[in-house]
TrEMBL record:
Residues in the signal sequence: 1-25
Similarity annotation: Belongs to the OB-RGRP/VPS55 family.
A Pfam entry, by short name: PPR_2
Species per Swiss-Prot/TrEMBL record: Phaseolus angularis (Azuki bean)
Gene Ontology BP term (one): RNA modification
Membrane topology value: Multi-pass membrane protein
Protein name, entry field: Vacuolar protein
Keyword Signal: yes
MF term (GO), any: RNA binding
NCBIfam families associated with the record: PPR
Length: 338
C-alpha cells in the first residue's frame, strides 16, 4: 500500500514538472526546485502550503522576491494557467503596481467571480491612486461589494475629496459602520462637526473605532468638554475604549488644564494601557497652572504617574523643585480628598 501511494505521488510531481517546463522551458530561475511543487500546490488548492513555499524558498531582498513572483504570475497567465495565476496573486505575501498590472491583463482573460476586480479597487484606493481605483470600480459595478465601497470612500476621505466620498456613500446599498466611520472622520477633518454628530448618532452599531473617531474629532476641533462627555457616555454604555482614545484625551485634558478630569482619567485607565508618555502630556499642560494641585494628582498616580513626573522634571526643573518643596511641607489641598 505504501509503495502504491508513493508511485501516485511521483506521477503527480512528474506531471507538475512537465507543466512547469512547458511554461518556462529549460532555463529555470533561482528557485527551480520549488516551481514544480508550487504549480502542484496551486493546481490542487493547497493555498497554505503554496504561500509557505513562497515565503520560505525565495532568496534575495523583498524587491527581488516580488519581481520573481511577478514573473511567475506573468508566465502562468500567458500560457493559459489563469486559475493558477489568480491563486498565486491572492496568496502572494507582497505585491507592487506592476504585479497588479500583470494580473489586470489576466483579469481581461478570466475574472468570472470578480475577485481581482475587488482586489484592485482596494489596492489602488489604499495607495491613494483614486483615478485608477474609480476606473476599475466603475468598470464592473456588479462585482463591487461593501468592501469596495468602503475602500473607495476611505480613499477619497484620505485624499481630501469629501464630495466624491459623499457621492459614493449615498450609493451604498446598505450603510455599514465602516463606511459611516470613514465619513465621520472626513466630516470632522473638514470642521463639519454637526454633520459628523448626526451621522454618528444615527449609527445603529457603534464600535470602539467609531467612538474613537468622534472623540478625536472633537479634540481636533477644540471641543474638549464635549470629547470628555462623549467618553463618559461611551464608558456608561460599556464600550471598551481603545488605547489611542486615552492618549488623545490625556493630551486634551492637559492642554486646557482639566486637572480633576485628567486625574480621574488616569485612575480609570486599565493598567495595561497606562503610559508614561500619556501622563506626561497631561502633566505638561497641568504644570501651566502652578504647583498647588499637582502633588495630589501624583498621590494617586502610581508607578506610571511618578515615572511620567520624573520625565517632566527633566524639562521643568524649576517647577519640579516647587513641587518637591510642597511635598516636603506635607500640606493638604482641595484635591487630596478626592
Amino acid at each position: 500500500m505504501l509503495r502504491h501511494h508513493s508511485l501516485i505521488f511521483v506521477r503527480i510531481l512528474t506531471c507538475s514538472v512537465r507543466s512547469v517546463r512547458y511554461v518556462y522551458g529549460t532555463n529555470h530561475s533561482q528557485c527551480e526546485c520549488d516551481e514544480p511543487l508550487l504549480l502542484h500546490y496551486l493546481s490542487n488548492g493547497c493555498h497554505h502550503e503554496a504561500r509557505n513555499l513562497l515565503q520560505n524558498s525565495s532568496g534575495g531582498d523583498l524587491h527581488a522576491r516580488v519581481v520573481r513572483w511577478t514573473k511567475l504570475l506573468s508566465n502562468f497567465s500567458r500560457h493559459g494557467y489563469v486559475a493558477e495565476a489568480r491563486t498565486l496573486y491572492d496568496i502572494m505575501p507582497h505585491r507592487n503596481l506592476f504585479t497588479s498590472n500583470v494580473m489586470l491583463t489576466a483579469w481581461g482573460i478570466d475574472d468570472y467571480d470578480g475577485r481581482l476586480h475587488r482586489g484592485l479597487v482596494r489596492m489602488y484606493s489604499g495607495l491613494g491612486i483614486m483615478d485608477s481605483a474609480r476606473n476599475v470600480f466603475e468598470s464592473n459595478l456588479k462585482d463591487s461589494d461593501d468592501q469596495c465601497f468602503n475602500s473607495m470612500i476611505n480613499g477619497y476621505v484620505r485624499a481630501g475629496q469629501l464630495a466624491r466620498a459623499q457621492e459614493l456613500f449615498d450609493m451604498v446599498p446598505t450603510r455599514n459602520k465602516v463606511a459611516s466611520t470613514c465619513m465621520i472622520s472626513g466630516y470632522l477633518s473638514a470642521g463639519r462637526v454637526l454633520e459628523a454628530w448626526n451621522l454618528f448618532n444615527d449609527m445603529p452599531d457603534r464600535d470602539s473605532i467609531a467612538w474613537a473617531e468622534m472623540i478625536y474629532g472633537y479634540v481636533q476641533n477644540e471641543l474638549i468638554a464635549e470629547a470628555f462627555c462623549l467618553f463618559s457616555e461611551m464608558m456608561d454604555r460599556g464600550v471598551p475604549p481603545m488605547s489611542s482614545t486615552y492618549a488623545v484625551l490625556f493630551g486634551a485634558m492637559g492642554s486646557v488644564a482639566y486637572l480633576d478630569q485628567g486625574r480621574q482619567l488616569h485612575v480609570i485607565t486599565p493598567y495595561n494601557m497606562r503610559s508614561w508618555v500619556n501622563f506626561t502630556k497631561f502633566l505638561t499642560g497641568a504644570s501651566t497652572v502652578g504647583g498647588i494641585a499637582i502633588p495630589s494628582i501624583l498621590k494617586h498616580a502610581g508607578v506610571i504617574g511618578w515615572g511620567a513626573f520624573a520625565m517632566e522634571l527633566s524639562s521643568y526643573f524649576v517647577f519640579g523643585l516647587t513641587v518637591i518643596c510642597y511635598l516636603w511641607m506635607g500640606d493638604e489641598d482641595e484635591y487630596s480628598i478626592l
